[in-house]
Sequence to fold (293 residues):
Amino acid sequence: MKLLDGKLVAEQIKNEIAREVKEQFIDKGLEPPHLAAVLVGEDPASMTYVSAKEKACREVGFISSVYRYPSNITEEKLFDVIDFLNSDDDINGFIVQVPLPGHIDEHKIIERIDPAKDIDGFHPVNIGKMVLNLPCFLPATPMGIMTLLDRYNIDVEGKNCVVLGRSHTVGTPISIMLSRKSKPGNGTVTLCHSFSQDIQTIASRADILIVAMGKQGFVTADMVKQGAVVVDVGIHRIPSDETKSGFKLKGDVKFDEVAGKCSYITPVPGGVGLMTIVSLLQNTLKAAKKEII
Fold:
C-alpha cells in the first residue's frame, strides 16, 4: 500500500506556482494574481477553509482579499457584491464560500458569477465546457483528485472506476472527468448514489474507487477489491480523548481496515482537502494569464 499524499503533491504544486508568479509577474513588474473570497456568516468550517485559502495565497505570492458579510445579508445585496467583483479588473478570480444561509439561492449566486472569474468551476458555462472537454475552470475538488492520479502515474484508461456520491461539487464532475478522452481519463465509470442497489458489490469490483458519500466510515474492507486505488473525499470531526483539540478527522473510508487491500489510498487528513485548495490556486493563475475566456 502506498499513500496518495495530498500534502506532498500540494507543496510541490505551490512551489511551482510561486516560481511562475515570480518569473511571469513580479520580475516583469506586473501585479501578481489576485484571488478573492466572499464569506457570508460565521460557519466555523467555512471560516477555517477561507483562512486556509488566504494562507495558501500568501505562500505562492498571490494577493488575497476576503469580503465578509453577516448571515442576514439579502440576496440582492450579495448580487451587488458579485457584480462588483465581476467588474473589478484587479481581481482575477473569486469564490463565494458555501454553504450559504437558507434565504439565499445558491444556484442564482453561482450563475451571477462571471464564468471567466469562476475559479470554483461551478458556473453552468464551465460545467458545460467540462462535459465537452473544452478549456474551462474545473471544479476544485475533482480537479485535485485528477491531479493526484496524474502525479502518481495512475493509469485510468480502460479501468473500472466507481464513484460513490453524485453531488454537483464532487461526484458528478469527477465521474465525467474520469470518462473523458484525456489523460488521466478514458475510464469506464459507474456513478452510485443513495438510490443505487447493491453498492457494496459494485464498489468491490472497482479498480479505482472514489468515495464522496458524506458518511463517516461507509466503505469497509469487504467493499474494496484487492489492489484497488481508493480516494477518500469525506472529512468528519470525530470526538477523541487522544488529541489536544478533542477530535480526530476521519473520512468516508475505514482507513485502518481498507488500506491493506489497496495499491494506493488517500489519507484523511492529508489527502484530497489540500489538493482542493491548490486547485483553486491553479485556476486563479490560469485566470490571471487569461487562459480561460
